[in-house]
Amino acid sequence: MPANIQPAIGRFAETIVQWQKQAGRHDLPWQGTSDPYKIWLSEIMLQQTQVSTVIAYYQRFLERFPTLQALAGATQDEVMPYWAGLGYYARARNLHRCAQVLCEKWGGKFPRQVSEIVQLPGIGRSTAAAIAAFAYGERQPIMDGNVKRVFTRYFGIIGNPAVRAIEQELWQTADAAIDAAPPELDMAAYTQGLMDLGSSCCTRTRPACGLCPLGSHCYARIESMQRELPTPKTRKTGAERQCKMLILEHQGKILLEQRPSPGIWGGLRSLPQYDDLESLQGACLNWGLDPAQARKIAALLHTFSHFRLHIEPWYLRSPAQFVAETRPQQAWVAIEDLPAAALPAPVRKLLCGLFPGPG
Length: 359
Fold this sequence. Notes:
Helix content is 41%, strand content 12%. The chain is an alpha+beta fold and 359 residues long.
């Protein structure tokens, strides 16, 4: 941290705890529990997803899979519909696999040590520390996006947080903040407080510095560098991709394919997808269908974190004599059953627009 700024690191953690107990969030559905299963589920769902979006998914997921054992005993096909729409589907696949590992190797219980938790599928250092802090009161720092913003601004840590050297400096500072705190530090309140502060006061744009308990010693506020910190990464122009999707209807059913895992939408059911129109027409001919009967419907654009996908859908209703043969990864799903299917968000939107019932 800059030599000309001497933040009160000795009071940093205690200040966060006091603020959280007075002004932080206390009514989230995963708060007030020390059950590591529920804590773990919320932490995974909250990765790269807003709290307001997660709440309904979290509650619905727990209704279906109330315990670690219930999740481990389910199939991936049973799990994916309860994640469809949340995005970043590798999280759901890792969640399911992690539950199985915990039942197979840990007797259905979470280990207590961060060094052991972090070895589980889909759990990184910050998530492992959050689980240990909330469930067991372990004195371990977290470092998610909100926390990085608080630390870079308060301690004046300049440089892209995604760069390894800067990330290491952030972790070292986080360790130092806990080391300087008193032994009786409320780790659950401290961990939650960092998350709350980053989402309510120390926001990405227009931070509410006047409401922040750290304002008097904050490097970014003192130096008027709130816009410059965290140091932004150089943005690359997003890649553009295109595909064709076939909506094939047969006797009130739609043909869906399970997407390969890993990969985009891995484990979900989607429409047959093709790189170009020639491939789509060839598939129709292989089924004995006339591709000239297919009609193009309104295109849609779906934005991923690293590229944009332009989807051109084609709709074709099969004749009565059509023989509905499928490959192992394909299945015919009744239109009325589409709402319960694990569909990617743009595919669900597409089918909802075409058929009044789904969604």
